[in-house]
Write a structure and sequence with these properties.
four-stranded antiparallel sheet; 12 helices; Aspartate Aminotransferase, domain 1; seven-stranded mixed sheet; 399 residues; binds D-malate
Amino acid sequence: MLQLNENYMKLKQSYLFSEIAHRVNDYSAANPDKKVIRLGIGDVTRPLPKKTIEALHQAVTHMAYSDSFKGYGPEQGYDFARESVVNYYKSNGVTIDLKDVFISDGAKSDTGNITDLFGPDNIVLIPDPVYPVYMDTNTMNGRNIVFMDANKENGFTPMPYDGLKADIIYICSPNNPTGAAYTRDQLKEWVDFALKNKALILFDAAYECFIEDKIYPHSIYEIEGARKCAIEFCSLSKTAGFTGTRCGYTIVPTDLTVTTSDGTDMSMNAMWTRRQTTKFNGVPYIIQYAAAATLSPEGIEQCRENIAYYKSNARIIADCFKKKGITYFGGINSPYIWFECPDGMESWDFFDYLLNNAQVVGTPGAGFGKNGNNFFRLTGFGDKDATIEAVERIDKLLK
Ligand code: MLT
């Protein structure tokens, strides 16, 4: 008889953003005359940079001629795309090798897929609150998850402590959803902890392009020793507006080795290569070509204009909360504003209240973990006029 992976029974019925989409669709169906403003999921609204669009057109043309047509590509990514990632890191002062780079269809897939490489008995340390993919994918695999509290008291950047036990440590900096980022000194403590305890850090840098304060590293590889204990995930989704275009990259340093139970030194880079070549046929040539153009200095310059636009939206939201005396976090080195629900409301109740009374969609903090129960997230990724209108509605509602 067929046996299912019953770990799925331990998951919430729907993924966070699917649940939100259901509720909003139900509301819109029942209230077709109401204009809903969506500041929930962190989905971009600005068109792709000019450099990206030009490259997409060129790559389509390549596919039209037999001498430039491409079929299957290397599963790890074309060298030109990997090279563009190497150069992007170099522009942030970080040296990585072409062989460390794996081009992917985004950080969401890879942060989930990487769990293929780990045995079932690891202790997985996950911040609470955080991006729900880490918890859901490890729950699917039946792993032992330990949460570390991120809260106002520790500035939403929990640190290692005496007696802490962990084999796999997820760090998302700047953090989704709180917007908090780890400083270099703080990350050094995590790297030292991982090296000392033979643990692995899975570092999600999807929001690194929003960092403006120099005390926060863009990459964990800015920290000495990280190449021996960390894998980094990043994506062009937020950097360049690729949420629908899909391209990301994962860095698995060639010097990251782990000793197995029989004493063999296994290269994680070789394992990931084996996994990707078996289960993945690579990102489409057209997309990789556009991604490489996007990561060029000119492309990045154009991305920065969009990032500045989103940041000014975040500022508009933050200014409203400041004026109203609502405690909020993030919005400076992050596109997200994380704030306390008024009058101690629970976050899903506040979600309904905001949707029903202001037709504004946000993300309930509870969807990111129990420490988010009384918090709520709004995103700066919306259209500017819609953001201004949403803020006016919120201003009126929360007298
Ligand atoms: C979010 O809203 O948290 C993100 O857009 C989700 C994602 O990047 O998958």
